[in-house]
Specification:
67% helix; 4 helices; 0% strand; mainly alpha; single chain
C-alpha cells in the first residue's frame, strides 16, 4: 500500500492504531506522514503573497521583452563603418 493511500485513510478518520496494525508501520511514523501531508495541503492552499515566484516571473518577462526590442533595434540599425583598429602608442 502506498503512503498516500495510508495517509488518506488517516485523514478520513481511521485510527492510527488500526491503520498501523493493518499496514505494519509504527504509529509514530504514520502520525508523521499524516502531519506532513496536512502541512503540505495547508501550504498548497495558502493564498498569501507567496514566495515571490510570481513577481520574479513578471520581472523576467519584462526583461525578455526589453531584450527582444533591443535585438530588433540592433537588426535595423546600419552597421558601424569602422576600419581596422590600430594600436596607439
Amino acid at each position: 500500500m502506498r503512503k498516500q493511500e495510508v495517509v488518506l485513510r488517516l485523514i478520513r478518520g481511521e485510527t492510527l492504531e488500526a491503520v498501523s496494525r493493518d499496514v505494519g508501520v509504527p504509529m509514530y511514523r504514520l502520525a508523521d506522514w499524516r502531519d506532513r501531508a496536512l502541512m503540505g495541503i495547508t501550504a498548497a492552499l495558502h493564498e498569501g503573497p507567496g514566495d515571490g515566484r510570481e513577481e520574479a516571473l513578471k520581472e523576467a518577462r519584462r526583461k525578455i521583452g526589453d531584450l527582444l526590442m533591443e535585438i530588433e533595434l540592433l537588426k535595423k540599425s546600419p552597421p558601424k563603418a569602422n576600419g581596422p583598429r590600430r594600436w596607439k602608442r
